[in-house]
Amino acid sequence: MTSADLVRDHTIYSCVMGSRAFGLETEDSDTDRRGVFLAPTPLFWRFDKPPAQVEGPAEEQFSWELERFCELALRANPNVLECLHSPVVEHIDDTGRELVALREAFLSRRAHQTFVRYAGGQRRKLDADVRQYGRPRWKHAMHLLRLLMSCRDLLRTGELTIHVGTDRDRLLAVKRGEVPWAEVETWMNRLTEEADAAASGSPLPAAPDHGRVEDFLIRARRASALRALGA
Length: 231
Prior knowledge:
The longest helix is centred in the middle third of the chain and has 24 residues. This protein has two domains: 126 residues, Beta Polymerase, domain 2 (2-Layer Sandwich), CATH 3.30.460; 91 residues, no CATH class. The chain has a five-stranded mixed β-sheet with strand order 3-4-2-1-5. The protein is an alpha+beta fold. It is built from ten helices and five strands. The relative contact order is 0.14. α7 packs antiparallel against α8.
């Protein structure tokens, strides 16, 4: 069974991410697709295990095997957590619905560290661009602002919302380079400070519900094995 077969035949959840999910799309925006597939359990009984993630087969498409996806989500990986909150779902089956129903189990105050750490890495790249070229990559600056907003609001409310809503116009102005870099820097710094301030009093639990997620994964693997055996 090829990687393309796994994505085509065993995807349990797929969605649109990127600008089209964030409410920041323009006429020239790509359509980024992300998905989760459940590799048939018997494939894990072989020496050659199924892949943990697959790029493609379509352009701008990337998928994770369910276990890998859950591992990353439990670690509060921003890209993975946001997939479960996309407003644009293209495919979902019963197992996928169970996964989405679990999305709150993945959320915890660990998101503060992972989101801010990821944002810090992106900020350093933007600063390097400014030093070298005199300006940042404005599109990346826009998306970093959006991520910081998402992190702050998650820590404040306990809910992850990825659509930018009424901030769309202001963020797109950043993308077009219409906002001075100094003003963008100030905005980034304020959002980081607000996220830091929200962390200590956040309604989120200290850690994700590892046991609940593991129970779901075991049940999904067992059901897959039974289907393969015709039981």
